[in-house]
Automatic annotation (TrEMBL):
Name of the gene this protein is made from: ptsP
E.C. number: 2.7.3.9
SUPFAM superfamilies, per database record: Enzyme I of the PEP:sugar phosphotransferase system HPr-binding (sub)domain, GAF domain-like, Phosphoenolpyruvate/pyruvate domain, Phosphohistidine domain
GO cellular component terms attached to this protein's record: cytoplasm
Family statement drawn from the similarity comment of this UniProt entry: Belongs to the PEP-utilizing enzyme family.
Organism placement in taxonomy: Bacteria, Pseudomonadati, Pseudomonadota, Alphaproteobacteria, Hyphomicrobiales
Gene source species: Blastochloris tepida
GAF domain residues: 24-170
UniProt cofactor(s): Mg(2+)
Name this protein carries in UniProt: phosphoenolpyruvate--protein phosphotransferase
One GO process term, biological-process aspect: phosphoenolpyruvate-dependent sugar phosphotransferase system
Length: 755
């Protein structure tokens, strides 16, 4: 075939025949190597398969000693074959034995062959094995031959991935393609999920690799690329995209790649070797992934996502727009796997069938994380290449507490987690039994246990948990999951539904906390160096009072004839609070003048989450009706450690002397003013955190829905006075040891608290 393009096509056609034959896996492999060797005029063709123990086993050969099949095994990185697997790129040598990586395997009899061409067998960028051809003569294989061998490797990749070869393997030495994987990411939403993979953006499954008519495939590819380019152009020029936004940058990058000559050339070459246009897209993307995944540079990895998306779009052009996999029925135990996802996309899934969520990205405070917690979907984030490691329908287990993920778990792991899930269910039952019991400490202190909420889907939780009320209603959630700005009427309807659902129980609405990193896709955004310290929340509200006014008006109307509690986020000084409060007064006056029924009672409060307020507490309490402490932000600002940046977000422990001292100051001054103080940060949702807070004097907490049971169970066993006696001295400088968490743990243990 040297130099001729007819060669690979003929080979692919023959391979298709072999793939369709009803023969054993070994026979099929044996036929394949014979075909490849003959077609490439090579004296040797061998297939090495990557095993679960990371070694490469010779599975079939034409030309080498047959007795070496299933006997010769190379360690990872050993020999030329190991090198090809490790680097996931072709190796083309005219004198293999003089290469420093050459490893002599006497049983194969390969010493008489000088030239060597090895290509990785890749699937979704993962190496599954190595395909090699060898010749006696010293020669360098042509570009076309390398291309042809890579194309052939793709057919083998599908064969390996199908699991067909597992029957040939000894236990413990199975092909790695379907091996169980144990990975650890970041626990984002508590709970154990056992189920089967549903890819959020399913790889289009290419069933037909081998072209019947190459000219037709070239034409299909060209048409699809044209359509892709046109669709990107129309998105960019359609006027719906913010001219300065991030979305536009992404599309501009797509446009650049879609016109990239190298990409186009590789796609065309792959089609010319005899692949269908779809198979060519998959092959080129798989090679690209394999190369880019080996780069440490985060910028390059980010570009990989762009290229993945682009390949995905091109595939959709090829398969036709009717290809809409998400409408397929979900399995009853779906674990959704995605690179990242919007909250709205998560809510689109049938919740009764979703058992978990696995994200390649996804910080603990990302929007999708907040929604996942709100709807109680166990979630793990930060698993690199997660979508590339699984196949649709694979068995999978995720543990949202520890961040552990088991892909294709073995029976014992599966059994252990099933037991864990059963235990959890039993615990949930115990918590449910506490639902109607009061949250009172052993020494009679009542603690109001509220829940944090933000969406309609949260409302049934009030009754389910028996919570005292909603301590924090994050109104921005409605905005984050909407496709466009919710109108005042829609806001009013939501607030009214919340108040209806809560009945007599109090609800504290927080005005919009958007801006900074909480960007709304439909709102013009500004590039900011430090978004957390930027133009967000009340700052934006005061600068764009129209928005705040319409929201406040919607709240006042929704609460007509009932009680309304509203508070402002990110207030940094008393003057800001006064300005925000005056907006409420103005709206009240407006509604009164127009004859609207007003709330029966109105309380206006402040979130304490910017440290400057700690030094203006007296003035603040003199003016506010109540305070709610937002420790998520307060702690990030106290420690100057970005809560959304996983490199630093866990660096400092909120259960520390400085934080508890700050909280003590707030509760003490609040009590001196006779004003209610509550705390709605995540800290209250941790049973140990709740113990510390009650010791400090907090008698009202607002926690995530899943935390109501565990926190109530602990507080009902707590002696609040004894906790205060033990814990408060640790904050008074008499505690040289700053490892407060350990001390708190020891205290909880000595009191037999059910942590
Ligand atoms: C907080 O900052 O603690 C808080 C409750 O608000 P959010 O997490 O919405 O910023
Ligand atoms: Mg906050």
């Amino acid at each position: 075939m040297r130099g001729s393009l007819g060669g690979p096509r003929v080979l692919l056609r023959r391979l298709r025949e072999v793939m369709a034959q009803r023969v054993s896996a070994q026979e099929r492999l044996d036929k394949i190597v014979v075909l490849i060797a003959a077609n490439m005029v090579a004296e040797v063709c061998s297939v090495y398969v990557l095993r679960v123990d990371s070694t490469l086993e010779l599975y079939a050969t034409e030309g080498l000693n047959r007795a070496a099949v299933h006997q010769t095994v190379m360690r990872a990185g050993e020999g030329l074959v190991g090198l090809v697997a490790q680097e996931a790129k072709p190796l083309n040598l005219s004198d293999a034995q003089s290469h420093p990586a050459f490893a002599f395997k006497p049983e194969t009899g390969e010493e008489i062959y000088h030239s060597f061409l090895g290509v990785p067998i890749l699937r979704a960028g993962n190496t599954l094995g190595v395909l090699v051809v060898q010749n006696r003569a010293h020669r360098i294989y042509s570009e076309e031959e390398i291309e042809a061998l890579q194309t052939t490797a793709m057919v083998l990749a599908e064969m390996i991935a199908s699991g067909e070869l597992s029957a040939l393997a000894r236990p413990g030495a199975e092909p790695a393609a379907r091996r169980p994987l144990h990975l650890t990411g970041l626990g984002i939403s508590d709970g154990v999920g056992l189920g089967h993979v549903v890819l959020h953006e399913p790889r289009v499954v290419v069933t037909n690799f081998i072209a019947e008519d190459v000219a037709r495939e070239v034409a299909r590819l060209d048409r699809a690329v044209d359509a892709l380019r046109a669709s990107i152009d129309s998105m960019l020029e359609g006027g719906e995209i913010d001219p300065a936004g991030e979305h536009r940058d992404v599309l501009e990058t797509y446009r650049m790649f879609a016109h990239d000559r190298g990409w186009m050339r590789r796609l065309r070459e792959a089609v010319l070797t005899g692949l269908t246009a779809e198979a060519a897209v998959e092959r080129v993307q798989s090679d690209t992934r394999a190369r880019m995944m080996r780069q440490a540079d985060p910028f390059i990895r980010e570009r990989l996502h762009d290229l993945d998306d682009l390949a995905h779009r091109l595939m959709r052009e090829l398969m036709g727009r009717t290809h809409a996999p998400k409408t397929e029925r979900l399995p009853k135990d779906a674990i959704i796997v995605a690179r990242n996802m919007s909250p709205a996309a998560l809510l689109d899934y049938d919740r009764t069938r979703v058992r978990g969520l696995l994200l390649e990205e996804g910080g603990p405070m990302s929007h999708v994380a907040i929604v996942a917690r709100a709807i109680g979907v166990p979630t793990v984030g930060q698993i690199a290449n997660a979508a590339g490691l699984v196949d649709q329908g694979d068995a999978i287990i995720i543990d949202g507490a520890s961040g552990e993920v088991h892909i294709r778990p073995q029976a014992d792991v599966q059994a252990a987690y099933a037991e864990k899930a059963r235990l959890r269910a039993r615990k949930q039952k115990q918590f449910a039994a506490l639902r109607d019991k009061p949250c009172v400490t052993r020494d009679g202190e009542h603690v109001a246990l509220n829940i944090n909420a933000g969406l309609l889907v949260d409302l049934p939780h009030i009754a389910e948990t028996g919570a005292a009320g909603i301590g924090l209603f994050r109104t921005e959630m409605q905005f984050m999951v909407a496709a466009s700005f919710p109108r005042s009427g829609e806001q009013e309807r939501l607030y009214s539904a919340v108040l209806d659902a809560a009945g007599d129980r109090p609800v504290t609405f927080r005005t919009l906390d958007i801006g900074g990193d909480k960007v709304l896709p439909y709102m013009r955004s500004f590039e900011e160096e430090n978004p957390a310290l930027g133009w967000r929340a009340i700052r934006l509200g005061l600068d764009r009072p129209g928005l705040l006014r319409s929201q406040v008006r919607a709240m006042l109307k929704a609460a007509a004839g009932r009680n309304l509690r509203l508070m402002f986020p990110m207030v940094a000084d008393v003057a800001e609070f006064e300005r925000a409060r005056s907006i409420v007064e103005r709206e009240l006056t407006h509604l009164r003048r127009h004859g609207y029924l007003l709330p029966e009672q109105l309380q206006v409060g402040v979130m304490v989450e910017v440290p400057s307020l700690l030094f203006e507490l007296d003035e603040l309490f003199a003016r506010t009706d109540f305070v709610s402490v937002g420790t998520n932000d307060l702690v990030q600002f106290l420690y100057a450690a970005d809560r959304g940046n996983t490199r630093v977000s866990d660096r400092f422990d909120p259960l520390s002397v400085p934080v508890l001292r700050a909280l003590k100051r707030i509760i003490d001054i609040g009590q001196a003013h006779g004003k209610p103080v509550t705390l709605c940060g995540e800290m209250a949702s941790q049973p140990l955190g709740a113990v510390a807070l009650v010791a400090l004097g907090f008698r009202s907490l607002s926690v995530s829905v899943a935390a109501v049971g565990p926190v109530k169970a602990v507080l009902r066993q707590l002696d609040a006075r004894r906790a205060a006696q033990r814990i408060l001295p640790w904050l008074e400088g008499r505690c040289s040891d700053t490892r407060l968490r350990e001390r708190l743990h020891a205290f909880a243990e000595s009191e037999a608290l059910p942590l």
